[in-house]
Design goal:
The chain is α/β, with parallel strands linked by helices. The chain has one domain (7-185, 215-243): 3-Layer(aba) Sandwich (Rossmann fold), CATH 3.40.50.720. Helices cover 45% and strands 15% of the residues. The chain has eight helices and seven strands; from the N terminus they run βαβαβαβαβαβαααβ. It has a seven-stranded parallel sheet with strand order 3-2-1-4-5-6-7, with helices on both faces. α1 (16-27) crosses α8. The longest helix has 29 residues, at 103-131. It is globular and about 50 Å long.
């Protein structure tokens, strides 16, 4: 198995891409800390997965809190002795014209989607430097490279994640740690299933491959970047977007 003996943290792991990644990496032999907000479904999800023979724990964490993020990493080390892979996936959406976006809404999106990724990476790097090894994968978006009307805060945050990842990769490489980001396109989540068919079809047309993505397809990319198969990959921005960005380059 590709992650046998590895310990992994997934933030935002209670649903969607995060949960799919937890499930995929457990199947590949990892011990996984599923982390999400205290009021999420994370505890139940982790308990169900662990009951099936997987090594899965729930640890609550709000990525806007430095103390909680640092404790997440420290508690993982206390439980399992190391942190080999971190998927910084916690994030929120949000739309609205820039002229109508309040300071509070803008700053909240930045604090979760950009600063939260930084806090997670910083805590992980400190532990991984002590180990001399590790892999960090930051969840960006296609909007980390492309603009889209009505997404000013989200796009600003995701663009920051992409370039922060490159910088962290340069710093961390001499110390045995790899840092990469992924850029999902539109993924077929329950939220999109509630969209009117016309809107869903419009989203599908944005992807040359002719459909929306699936959670597990993003999870496969995270698995690769976290595994030793990606041992010479760092600073990358891996698009998982069905050709969306290629058609706009």
């Amino acid at each position: 198995m590709r992650l046998q003996g590895k310990t992994m943290i997934v933030t935002g792991g209670a649903s969607g891409i995060g949960l799919a990644t937890v499930e995929r990496c457990l199947k590949e032999g990892a011990k996984v800390v599923l982390s999400d907000l205290a009021g999420s479904d994370g505890a139940a999800r982790a308990q169900a997965l662990d009951a099936m023979g997987a090594r899965c724990l729930f640890m609550p964490c709000d990525v806007t809190s430095t103390e909680q993020v640092d404790a997440l990493v420290a508690n993982t080390v206390e439980q399992w002795g190391s942190v080999d892979i971190v998927f910084a996936n916690a994030g929120i959406g949000g739309t609205g014209d820039a002229a109508d976006t309040t300071d509070a809404d803008y700053l909240r999106t930045i604090d979760i989607n950009l600063n939260g990724v930084f806090r997670t990476a910083r805590a992980a790097l400190r532990q991984m430097y002590r180990q001399g090894s590790g892999s960090i994968i930051n969840c960006a978006s296609i909007l980390g490279a492309l603009g889209q009307s009505g997404t000013v805060a989200y796009s600003a945050a995701k663009g920051g994640v992409v370039n922060m990842t490159r910088t962290l990769a340069i710093e961390a490489a001499p110390r045995g740690v790899r840092v990469n980001s992924i850029g999902p396109g539109y993924i077929d989540t329950p939220l999109l299933k509630d969209f009117p068919d016309e809107m869903r079809q419009a989203l599908i047309r944005l992807h040359p491959i002719g459909r929306l993505g699936r959670d597990e397809e993003v999870a496969n990319a995270v698995l690769f970047l976290g595994s030793d198969e990606a041992s010479f990959v760092t600073g990358a921005y891996l698009l998982v977007d069905g050709g969306y960005a290629a058609g706009k380059s």
